[in-house]
Design brief:
Rossmann fold, binds nicotinamide-adenine-dinucleotide, binds 2'deoxy-thymidine-5'-diphospho-alpha-D-glucose, alpha/beta, 12 helices, single chain, 43% helix, 7-stranded parallel β-sheet
Length: 351
């Protein structure tokens, strides 16, 4: 087994990052896990309350775009591996403020690559830079077909363009400087601790509060949904057993049209909230479409399945129920993240 000891996880206070941090801290007591996060609106240390005092866990507040700070951090700690999740992650925000996405997703990734490279002075034995990316870099599918690892990049939003650019830089550092890397491109995640700007938690919160459910366009857009803990397991597997310089696609084998997903969510919420069946569906409101809205994403995850034996562990119905239960049982978490600046974001995005 790989015996890497000092792992820097960036963006570990966010949605997916917090699940990855918890998994590594609990599973690998011989690793020292450093969670570097700027605590933007999407970062929340409440996500990690249960492990914050673990002896093999350290939180560092800091910005990946701050070159001096990042270089100093690497010379102090000499991280032998990086799992890089920190990013601006919401497509709608990238449409209103694209530059913020270039700064964090492109420049931030470059700063980390440079720091990692100069820390090890090109002697990369036993080191790894693991870059977490998205299926959105491949652009959009029509009604048929799947994204494979060899699908050409064709990003359509400022978010996906910034992620595509960061993927290219990681690969280029591998080719040019022999920097040891692996990249994974995952489909839509859902589960506990997701910030309620993304479809599923936003709609759960609105159903709880009897607010309209703003479905973009005609709702006939398709996404491939994966339970977040299954993504964290895939990251663990790729980190330890993935082949260097390779890309792995991760997906749920689980395509849903938005409108069908929203109807299923409404039915499950009606049951949980003891409302009349059909009550939540009445909240569905079709609103102006997202500009450049990708029609369909769907991942061919056969490479990670065949080479590393990974597959999702829960069905969508099970995962969705666990997710709903978590939000209903964690009202304080939801109230905390939806107070303050969330209100002005919501007003601007949906008014
Ligand atoms: P998120 O928005 O929930 O969390 C991002 C985290 O990064 C936050 O904790 C935030 O504080 C931190 N961060 C942002 N800018 C930073 C900076 N400049 N310096 C340091 N920290 C900073 O995102 P997520 O949904 O958990 O996504 C994590 C990663 O996974 C991203 O790289 C995203 O592109 C990728 N991804 C997400 C999904 C998904 O469905 N959410 C799917 C595939 C890939
Ligand atoms: O595919 C992976 C990507 O999935 C990740 O890289 C991104 O970080 C993540 O945000 C997600 O992107 P999407 O744009 O697909 O996710 P979002 O939850 O924003 O939207 C899912 C679908 O629901 C999409 O077709 C847009 C639609 N939607 C979304 C919101 C927020 C609505 O109809 N109404 C809404 O209010």
């Amino acid at each position: 087994m790989n015996t890497k000891r000092k792992i820097l996880i960036t963006g570990g206070a966010g949605f997916i990052g917090s699940h990855v941090v918890r998994l590594f801290v609990q599973k690998y007591s011989n690793y020292q896990v450093f969670n570097l996060d700027a605590l933007t609106y999407a970062g929340n240390l409440e996500n990690l309350n249960d492990i914050e005092n673990a002896p093999n866990y350290t939180f560092i507040k800091g910005d990946i775009t701050d070159e001096n700070f990042i270089n100093e951090l690497f010379s102090t700690h000499k991280f032998d591996s990086v799992i890089h999740l920190a990013a601006e992650s919401h497509v709608d925000r990238s449409i209103t403020d694209p530059l913020a996405f270039v700064k964090t997703n492109v420049i931030g990734t470059m700063v980390l690559l440079n720091a990692f490279k100069s820390c090890w002075k090109d002697n990369f034995d036993g080191k790894l830079f693991y870059h977490i990316s998205t299926d959105e870099v491949y652009g959009t599918l029509g009604e048929t077909g799947l994204f494979t690892e060899s699908t050409s990049y064709d990003p359509n939003s400022p978010y996906s363009a910034s992620k595509a650019s960061s993927d290219h830089f990681v690969r280029a550092y591998g080719e040019t400087y022999n920097l040891p890397y692996v990249i994974s491109n995952c489909s839509n995640n859902y589960g506990q601790n997701q910030f309620p700007e993304k479809l599923i938690p936003l709609f759960i919160n609105n159903i709880i509060n009897n607010k309209p459910l703003p479905v973009y366009g005609d709702g006939n857009y398709t996404r491939d949904w994966l339970y977040v803990k299954d993504h964290a397991d895939a990251i663990d597997l790729i980190f330890h057993e993935g082949k260097q310089s390779e890309t792995y696609n991760i997906g749920g084998f689980n395509e849903w049209k938005n409108i069908d997903l929203v109807k299923l969510l409404c039915q499950q919420m009606d049951k949980k909230l003891n409302r009349d069946l059909g009550a939540s569906e009445k909240l569905i409101t079709f609103v102006k479409d997202r500009p450049g809205h990708d029609l369909r994403y769907a991942i061919d995850a056969s490479k990670i399945n065949k080479e590393l034996g990974w597959k999702p562990s829960v069905t969508f119905e099970e995962g969705l129920e666990k997710t709903i239960d978590w939000y209903l049982n964690n009202e304080n978490w939801l109230n905390n993240v939806t107070s303050g600046t969330y209100k002005s974001y919501y007003q601007k995005q949906y008014s």
